[in-house]
Queue: 2 jobs
Job 1
Amino acid sequence: MSWIEVLGFVTGAVSVAFAVRESAWNWPVGIANNVFFFILFWKAKLYADAVLQIVYVIISIYGWWHWLRGGVSHSKLPITKTRLQAGILLFLVTALSTALMATILHKFTDSQSPFGDGVTTALSLTAQYMLSRKLLENWWVWMTADVIYIFLYCYKALYLTGFLYALFFAMCIVGYIGWRKSFMGVRQSAEAAQ
């Protein structure tokens, strides 16, 4: 265990806690987390996960702005559900991205787990995009990725990070329940106003 892993653990837990509470502070804390995890994953030869951190920074800047100004008339963005067509498209993009990344990692790097690295990267990108749009189902995608991450990080002897992802999994359950209540409350208020 290194200081980088500890700092990644702390900033990761705080970032997800802010996301669970629908706080836009999840974005700047998440950016700090991305820096720590980039270093950690690069040293562990989890190259796709390392590069993913750079993409996260870009999506985080977008998400930060979108959460604060992406609603009607540049207001706070509300939670919404993923439409069927968008869900199918996100699934297909995730599957194709997994296949592409796993192939690249297998052929061009010394990755010891190209499929695990590829699938978690693809799922995480999809979940992060969904989070930036405040799509309720982002939590299900995160939970799927977290389960795989737990096994991957334990395999790489990154036990604290594996524990962090177990914590993330639990926080995702809380996040989904809280966001669903918020979504249903807004929906009921809108129906009552009609």
Job 2
Amino acid sequence: MACCARFHEMLKAVGGSVTVVSSVAAFAATIGNPAYNASKTGTLGLVRTLGQAWARDGIRVNGLAPGLVDTKMTKITTADPDRLSERLKGIPAGRLGTPGDMAGVALFLASPMAAYVTGQTVAVDGGRTL
């Protein structure tokens, strides 16, 4: 929020866009990790609120909510074959996300192709939250 506010005038001057990174944890409860869930759920409200408030300034604000992506942060799951197998069962696409999957959606949201999209958070999770 502070970062968005800091750059508001510059974004307004150029008709820019903001993409806030969250997590699919924002869409459902996460057992054993309430602080993480609360922070990610908060980004949904931030994206909606800034998307609405800043649209008249020509600024689009959207969110990206990654699912299970093969990164250093997820190694505790991805490095354990049993845990990984169990998690993949819940992903209709049948695979982990990649940083490239996230980048593609982020590029779309920042591009003119998303000129009429604001206040939305896109789940990029292989269908996990369906």
